[in-house]
C-alpha cells in the first residue's frame, strides 16, 4: 500500500519512515545502500517484532496463505485509489498532478476497450455475407421479394431506386428494361450458426475456448483477486490504525468485469457467425488481445508511480513512494535493522497477516468477513452462462430471420 510504517510509529521513532523509497535509498545516499540487516530482531515467535504488544492478535490467526493481485492497469489504479488518504495524498486529478497519469491510463484502457466493442457491434458491425441482386424497380412483385429478403427497407420503387449501386439496360422477353444492381450485406448477429459444416463447428468451439480461457483464467481472476483484496483491506486497515476510505474503488474491478463480459459475449457471437476458418481464428486472436490489453500498459505506469515520491507529507515523514510493487526486506525493516511493528508490510518468513508487496498479500481468509466472496461467485456464474446464452439467442434469431418462426410454437415455421 502507500506507506510502509504507520503514522503512530513514525512519530514515536525519530525520523523513521512511514515509507522508504522503492529502491531502499535514503536522502543522503541514494545509490549504495544495501538491504537492511536484522540484528535487533530476536526470533521468539513465528513472526518478527520489537514489541509484542504492538502486534494485534487478529493478525496472528493462522493458517496463512498468499494471494497475488494481477499486475494490470485496473489493479494499479485500484491500489492508488484505495490507499489515498487526506494525510497522504489525494486521488483527485485536479488536486494531485502526480495521479493524473494513473487516471489517463485507466480512462484510455477502459475507454479504448469499450470503444472497440461499440465500434464493431453498433457503429460498423462486420458483415458475414455480401449478396447482389438485379431487379427492375418498376416490377412490384420483384421489389416485394427483395424486401422480404432484406435488400430493401420498403417494397416501393422509390426505395429500390435509392438503393441501387448501378444500372444497365437488359432485353427481357423482347422488351428493353432498366435493371438495377442492389447489394445487401448481412451483419454477423443475423447469421449466428447459420452455416458451416462439422469442421467449422469444431473450429468455432476451439476458438471460443481460447477466448474464454484467457478471459476466465487470467482477466476474471484479476477481478476476483481485487474483490478479495477489498475485503482484506477493510479488515486490515483498522487494525493498523487507519480509517477505511475510498470504498468507491470497488467500482474499478466492476468496470473491468463489465468490459470482460462484453468482450466475451461479442467474441462468441462473431466467431459463431463467420464460416471461413481464417476469419474465425483471426477474430479469436483479436478478441484475446482486447481482453488482455490492460496488462501490456501496466509496467510503465507501475515504474512511474514506484519512482514518484508523495509530495507535501508531514515533517516527521521521510520520503514515501506511491507504490511498492516488489517484495523487499526494506519494506518492513528500517535501515538500522529494527523491525516496524506497526507497519503494513511483513517479511516472507513471518506467519502473520500483512503485505509482502502492494500486489501480494498474506492472510487467513477465515479470520475476517468476506462479503464480496458471494459477489465473486455470482459474477463467475454469469460469465459462464451469459455468453453461451447470447449465442443461443443469436442462433434462434438467425434461424427465424432466415426461415420464419411461428411465435406460438417453439421451433415452428410460420406462413409469413
From TrEMBL:
Q: Which UniProt keywords apply?
A: Membrane, Transmembrane, Transmembrane helix
Question: What are the Polar residues biased-composition ranges?
Answer: 22-40
Asked if the Swiss-Prot or TrEMBL record annotates the protein with the keyword Membrane, the reply is yes
**Leader peptide range in chain numbering:** none
Q: Identify the stretch(es) annotated as Disordered.
A: 1-40
This protein's source sits in the domain of life called Eukaryota
Give the residue spans that cross the bilayer. Answer: 102-124, 188-212, 254-274, 378-397
* Name the record gives this protein: Transmembrane protein
Q: Which organism is this protein's natural source? A: Symbiodinium necroappetens
Amino acid at each position: 500500500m502507500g506507506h510502509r510504517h504507520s503514522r503512530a510509529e513514525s512519530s514515536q521513532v525519530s525520523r523513521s519512515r512511514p515509507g522508504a523509497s522503492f529502491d531502499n535509498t535514503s536522502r543522503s545516499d541514494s545509490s549504495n545502500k544495501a538491504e537492511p540487516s536484522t540484528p535487533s530482531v530476536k526470533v521468539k515467535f513465528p513472526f518478527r517484532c520489537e514489541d509484542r504488544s504492538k502486534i494485534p492478535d487478529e493478525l496472528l490467526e493462522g493458517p496463512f496463505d498468499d494471494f497475488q493481485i494481477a499486475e494490470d492497469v485496473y489493479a494499479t489504479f485500484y491500489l492508488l485509489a484505495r490507499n489515498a488518504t487526506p494525510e497522504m495524498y489525494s486521488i483527485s486529478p485536479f488536486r494531485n498532478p502526480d495521479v493524473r497519469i494513473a487516471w489517463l491510463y485507466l480512462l484510455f484502457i477502459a475507454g479504448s476497450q469499450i470503444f472497440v466493442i461499440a465500434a464493431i457491434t453498433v457503429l460498423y458491425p462486420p458483415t458475414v455475407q455480401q449478396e447482389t441482386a438485379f431487379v427492375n424497380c418498376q416490377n412490384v412483385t420483384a421489389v416485394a421479394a427483395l424486401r422480404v429478403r432484406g435488400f430493401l427497407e420498403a417494397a416501393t420503387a422509390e426505395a429500390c431506386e435509392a438503393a441501387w449501386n448501378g444500372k444497365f439496360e437488359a432485353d427481357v422477353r423482347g422488351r428493353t428494361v432498366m435493371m438495377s444492381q442492389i447489394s445487401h450485406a448481412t451483419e454477423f448477429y443475423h447469421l449466428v450458426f447459420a452455416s458451416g459444416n462439422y469442421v467449422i463447428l469444431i473450429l468455432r468451439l476451439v476458438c471460443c475456448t481460447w477466448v474464454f480461457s484467457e478471459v476466465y483464467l487470467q482477466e476474471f481472476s484479476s477481478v476476483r483477486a481485487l474483490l478479495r483484496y477489498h475485503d482484506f483491506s477493510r479488515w486490515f486497515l483498522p487494525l493498523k490504525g487507519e480509517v477505511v476510505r475510498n470504498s468507491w474503488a470497488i467500482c474499478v474491478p466492476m468496470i473491468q468485469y463489465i468490459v470482460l463480459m462484453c468482450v466475451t459475449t461479442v467474441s462468441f457471437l462473431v466467431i459463431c457467425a463467420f464460416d471461413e476458418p481464417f476469419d474465425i481464428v483471426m477474430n479469436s486472436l483479436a478478441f484475446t488481445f482486447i481482453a488482455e490489453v490492460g496488462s501490456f500498459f501496466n509496467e510503465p505506469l507501475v515504474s512511474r508511480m514506484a519512482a514518484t515520491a508523495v509530495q507535501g507529507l508531514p515533517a516527521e515523514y521521510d520520503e514515501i513512494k506511491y507504490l511498492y510493487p516488489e517484495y523487499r526486506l526494506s519494506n518492513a525493516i528500517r535501515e538500522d535493522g529494527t523491525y516496524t511493528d506497526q507497519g503494513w508490510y511483513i517479511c516472507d518468513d513471518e506467519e502473520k497477516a500483512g503485505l509482502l508487496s502492494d500486489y501480494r498479500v498474506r492472510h487467513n481468509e477465515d479470520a475476517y468477513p468476506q462479503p464480496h466472496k458471494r459477489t465473486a461467485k455470482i459474477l463467475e456464474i454469469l460469465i459462464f452462462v451469459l455468453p453461451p446464452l447470447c449465442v443461443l439467442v443469436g442462433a434462434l434469431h438467425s434461424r427465424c430471420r432466415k426461415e420464419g418462426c411461428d411465435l406460438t410454437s417453439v421451433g415452428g415455421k410460420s406462413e409469413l
